[in-house]
Design a protein that fits this description.
Blueprint lengths: L4 E3 L5 E3 L3 H4 L23 E6 L8 E8 L2 E5 L5 E8 L2 E6 L4 E6 L4 E4 L5 E5 L3 E8 L1 H12 L11 E4 L2 H16 L5 H18 L18 H13 L7 H4 L7 H12 L3 H19 L4 H7 L5 H12 L3 H9 L1
Helix pairs in contact: 2-4, 3-4, 8-11
Amino acid sequence: MLGAKARDPKGASARFVLSMYRNGDADAVREFPIREIHGISQIDTCRTLLTSAGCRWQSTYVSMQIEDPYERSFPSSPHLFIGLVRSGSARLAYSLNAGEISSNLHSGQVGILAPAQSVRFRLNRRLHTTHLYLHASLLAEVAADIFNRDPASIEVITKLPFIDPLLEGLVGAIGEAAELNPETPDLHVEHLARTLAGHVLQHHSSAGPFRAADEPAHGLTRRQMARFQDVVEARMGHKLSLADLAEGSGLTAGHFTRLFKLSTGKTPYQYLLHSRVRRARYLLAKTSLPILQIASECGFADHVHFTRVFSRTVGRPPAAFRKLAND
């Protein structure tokens, strides 16, 4: 949550409050506090290419790096983290609160770590990445502006990895500001950062379109929906049963299906198929992967099945869609 509990260096429990940034020493927000990031880009197997340190940006910190294989646990940060794969492909295994999930990474995919979320990553191949942090005070201010409610009641949903073209574009624009013009005024960057924060809150938080009542009788809870989305994104290339899709919800497959449809208007399989086609569209347009490999990675049984479903949904076969997208 924007007001989630975290641990200070001495181990005492503390709750982040906006006033500590508004009413404290002005020097505290003169530039983004790098000491409060996860430190992913600072490990030995990461070669930092560029950071915004020295740009005097208050609400945003960005770094670009080459990440070679590693396995490491990272403590939580009080700020929102967004990662973007700029180039390369790899297998990422990650552990959040419990259990490990593996997923394929490709250029253009993004991932969100909510404030106060610790994580363990295992990466098996080299990637070029951009890491971006939004200051917790900025996130709280935007949340209050958009929803007119206590920001502490809104929970950002950790999602790894997924495709969001607008999120990709905004992270890329802030990264380019640091790369091409380090003198970019803080007000310009903050404008981009506020747009980014609003998008995350609208589409990737408990206040967004997938929010649901906490009582299962009225639909899935936000945590059950977030768990379902994690399973879909991480295991899309596998054959998934209803039991797999309901995993972690604490519900039977039948009960999960009823509540899912009540929450979204779709069945879990309809959502899964839509997600597979959406990822296939992205990979066809953004990568040079063979169509047969894309079919497999998106979970289609074979090339014929992929072509039939894709053509029915998009209106043209995969090869024709790729040609049009690259013309």
